[in-house]
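hey can u check if this looks right to u? its 179 residues, i copy pasted from the old doc so theres a chance i mangled smth
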Amino acid sequence: MKSSTLPSAFAVLLALLLTSCALWIPSTRHVPFNEAAFASYGPSGSGTVEGRIAVTDEDDGALHVGANANLTLLPVTAYTTEMVEREIGNGEVLARSDARLRKFLRAATADDRGQFVFNNVPAGDYYLTGLVEWYLGDDAQYQWACEKISVEKGQTVRVSVSRDLHRARRPYVVFWRLD
């Protein structure tokens, strides 16, 4: 091997390693956590959110139900909008979420038919998100579903969570990591 080829090959290998590692290095958040923006979402409410999570595979058009999918109800604030747009929409890995966010999140697990219920939801606007997983042979496939919804006091909101915001289509599974 010529000596001039070695630095070139090394440069390519180094570039590949740095690119691979960069996918897992958290990006800086631009929006600071503002607890006052979440104040109305803390106490228990009288609303209900129920529905089904399912996505359509862009490749073959098959419908995949979110059996046993974990869903999160996120209050709509500037902080959570950044999370949804950058983490789900762009596939970015953001720095850990502020630990104070935990008390404002609501979580549910869908049944084997993708059906879910959130009870005692305070009135407000929310992002309803979930990750649907299915297998193509032995390979796991993932697709995000996210809907923006509004809940009124005492209202039952019925929704089908199906909109895919995750365009990068990478199997990105880390979600709302908290300190």
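The helical segments are 5-22, 78-89.
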